[in-house]
């Protein structure tokens, strides 16, 4: 149904985006912004626009555009009604539906969108139902949201690894569904760079065996989908020699794929003597020398979220640690490219035989750090 939602200001700035299935580059909004410029008056922008690969359905409320992106044909009125429900919910929760208010309540906005749509289909759209799950913001909640829950920095470093075992001198052409999302690209010497510049396709005569065809970068200017969320509470008492730890991990934007090889690493302050923790899934260890807690979770089960909690013992007479430790996450997701990059097709020229072709996507956490 709905793949992505973009919130666009009256001036044409994209200030918030949310993806449910796969990450669609904000460059898709160029079609909408072009139509907006031609229309002149925002009220005159066509509510439904067709692009080569997507349908754009939008409404205009309170000097904001709510733009939804779908990859298949859907009843436009159904989507328009949902977008109005989103705007009404923001109005009900925050008392206003403006760019400033939405930015001030970003965390709550994402929580609402997560509940209102499930894998692209409307789920909970009534305010009274939503308020049972997500509390409307208060002064205290607003302060907490400004301190936690936001992404400080996010980027994706990706590679395309090739395994070629072909006879003769095949000439290959590899094209992507959404090459415009790539910010910075470097190629293997066999790639014809001019062809990439003009057509955004990879044309090359490959060497035999395994090699890195391309590496790319997606900056934080695009929305980098964070695949898991971490709810944590690590605290140390002002007096005494103990502390508490409580960590829960859940899936966020995994597009229905399973998170595997999930690990949590917590470098504790040097004054910590020992920990007494209980893990509902996996096992944990505490290294007395390095003061590092390592929790090996394994596969993430969305039906039963893994939790690690317990007490922390600190050396008697030591002052309270000046800052809480950070949490480092390791993970792997098969058959998912979190960048949103997708192979469209691979064609071979110069040889008459039919080759076997296959694509495998893998997402791995590089430096995924949660500040506590």
Structural overview:
There is one protein chain. The protein is α+β, with helices and mostly antiparallel strands and 372 residues long. The chain has 3 domains: 138 residues, Beta-Lactamase (2-Layer Sandwich), CATH 3.30.450; 81 residues, Immunoglobulin-like, CATH 2.60.40.1170; 107 residues, Sandwich (Immunoglobulin-like). 19% of the residues lie in helices and 38% in strands. It contains 7 helices and 23 strands. Strands 15, 17, 18, 20, 22 and 23 form a 6-stranded antiparallel sheet that branches. Strands 2-1-5-4-3 form a 5-stranded antiparallel sheet, sandwiched between helices. Strands 13-14-19-16 form a 4-stranded antiparallel sheet, with no helix packed on it. Strand 3 and strand 4 form a beta hairpin. The radius of gyration is 24 Å and the shape is flat. It starts with a strand and ends with a strand. Belongs to the adaptor complexes medium subunit family. It is a peripheral membrane protein.
Poorly predicted spans: 139-148
Q: Largest beta sheet, briefly?
A: 6 strands, antiparallel
Output the helix-strand order. EEHEEEHHHEEHHEEEHEEEEEEEEEEEEE
The percent range for strand residues is 35-45%
Helix percentage: 10-25%
Structural class: alpha+beta
- Domains counted in the coordinates: how many? 3
What's the total helix number? Answer: 7
Total beta strands: 23
Q: End-to-end distance, in Å? A: 36 Å
Question: What is the CATH architecture annotation of the largest domain?
Answer: 2-Layer Sandwich
Could you tell me the radius of gyration in angstroms? Answer: 24 Å
Instruction: Indicate the overall shape.
Output: flat
CATH secondary-structure class of the largest domain = Alpha Beta
Mean pLDDT: 86
What do we call the CATH topology of the largest domain?
Answer: Beta-Lactamase
